[in-house]
Amino acid sequence: MRNDEATAASSTRWSGWRGVALIVATYVYFLIFAQFGFLKRLDELGIVGSHLKLVMAAMAVGGVLASLLAPRITAGSNPSHRLRVGLFGCGAAALLTTLPLTTSSGVAASFLIGISLGLLTVTLVANLDLWIGTPTPLLKVGLGTGFAYFICNIPGLFTASPKEIAIAAGLIAFAALLATTTPATCESTEPSITEASESTRFAWILVWFTALIWLDSAAFFIIQNSQALKSGTWEGAGHLWRNGSLHFATALGSAWLIRKRGLAFTLLCAFASLGGGCLVLLNPARSGFAAVLYPVGVSLYSVALVAAPAFLLMTQSRADRARKAGWVYAISGWVGSALGIGMGQNLHRVPPLFVIAAAVLFVVPWFSTLRRSYFPQTVAIVVSLGAAFGIQQLLVHRNSRRQIGQDISIAHGRRVYISEGCINCHSQYVRPDSPDGLMWGPTRDVEAIRREKPPLIGNRRQGPDLSEVGSRRSPLWLRIHFMNPRDLSYESIMPEYSYLFHDDRGEALVAYVASLKSSGSDAHLRDVIASWAPAGTPPARGGAEGQLLFGHYCATCHVEGDKVRGTWGSSFKRLPPFLSVDQLRYIPRTDAPDTRTLRIARIIKFGIPGTDMPGHEYLPDSQISTLSAWVTQMSSTGDARVNSVIPAHTRRLLTGEGANPRRQRQKTQRRSFHSLERMPHSYVEDPWETRSSAHTQSG
Known about the structure:
Elements: H1 2-44, H2 49-69, H3 79-96, H4 103-126, H5 128-132, H6 137-152, H7 155-158, H8 162-175, H9 202-224, H10 227-233, H11 237-261, H12 263-280, H13 287-312, H14 318-347, H15 352-363, H16 370-395, H17 400-419, H18 436-440, H19 446-450, H20 475-483, H21 505-514, H22 521-531, H23 543-553, H24 555-558, H25 563-568, H26 593-606, H27 621-637, H28 648-655, H29 661-678
Helix pairs in contact: 1-4, 1-6, 1-8, 2-4, 2-14, 3-4, 3-8, 4-14, 6-11, 6-13, 9-12, 9-13, 9-14, 9-15, 10-13, 11-12, 11-13, 12-13, 12-15, 12-16, 15-16, 17-21, 20-21, 23-27, 26-27
């Protein structure tokens, strides 16, 4: 008899900590894997764009279905058995993602994650009192939530590879199976904690949680995809340890606040913190404020998200509690999260009007009892939102919204650059003490390159180095070149990527490549232009060779009716001049002839920074001089006889005349790649590559 009493006492004493362990395992799995590591893994596998949306939609569908159907299915109703099924499914799904996934297998794994998490969360909170016990249940919920967020912010786990995160999440789920042993008793009294006020209805709680999770998901997506915001919030070990400590302390404070002031006031405080954080995020320079407001708001409502369906909602039975928990997690959790991520993807910010509208939802239920019970809460929300909105108006710059969206687009473009294999032909490394500095820009710190994830140095060059291309090519030039390189670069061997512009990948790639420039790139280019002059004596006239070079490299923009000018004319910052009749804007009329020719040569060689005029860094000095002499002759004499000497195949290439465009493109590409195969490994004749053997060594 004494042994039985001792066993029962020991089971009662440890049962509460089994509940804490289950909360920790569930939250860690959801936070670090399902909503973070799994996304990184999909990105690593090249599942992006519409395919990514399809995979994540499968998780949401699985989560919603399991949350709503699990309380209504009576088969296998033993809570211990259901928890084991949910945890095993979570662990198996996490380990499956370490395998090479296609879009279809990714959808299957994602659906398994969603349905396992839905079953796990609803079963756990509906029966949490069986594992957590009746003494101080809110404190134990706070401890479990705080520990989970702290673990997720440990630098070694947060910065681990996607595979390592998946393995860790799977092992945590399997280890949690040990905590699902049958409780000391499977019959428990109904929750002893109830919300005192009748005005806190279930529907309003559902709306409040949805608004909070919506704000949380939008803010997380915006921060994670903006380097400027991420660097000030959770990038680096110091930020992560601080965030983990804030989460833990706030989770304990949330448990105390729910106990003392109730669920409604706690959710109000969470909204004030999250809403204020979202407004501050509109200005990346103030991301430090968001680094405090965001984790505080998240932990305040995360504790309530477990405690409310488990202990605080007024329910008639355990089955009723499970049904309400299912609605909370299906609507607020899965749907609210999807809406928040969608807002982050499409708007790249949380609009202030949305925050104000959400605030109204928190205030409306209190109007009828404003004077009796909720005056302090109303004052708190008005003061908090007023202060946050005032800060936003004072601190947000006009271009902040655009900057955040641009950061997200650049990050997406980098993923496209990797997935399309651009690294196989283009390096991003200017070699020190080599002709690279003249052609492609200043050198960069090798350690800074190594810190990139992954580094994109490259190992050979079929085309130009791109590490500083943003200072030498405009977004319009890049866009045209991606759609059809031969529209700009005479007989380029680069394949066209017009299909990327059928969705957002094309513009994202343009944004990324245009962003490739260092802080010293513009100054370096100005110094190079000012000090460069073509070697040798320039010819007096360009002659037939100058006309031919002009037809190859210049006519597409500077001759009326040619391909680029005719198709993209309205998109130029300034329409390229007709060189035979128009005044050359960047060449003073008062220049001496030699100075005029030198200025033109420098423009041909390096372009005009800040405009759509590109350089021709790859041309040897002799051709630059010849072309410069021809342009000088054209602009001085009005000689427009350009087309007459352009070979027929070049004319068709520039203007698209003649045969079927697709057949012509394929023919050009075959000819270019066959030429490539015949060339020595160390030298590739590409319009962007140098003609000098000193410039064509492997990258």
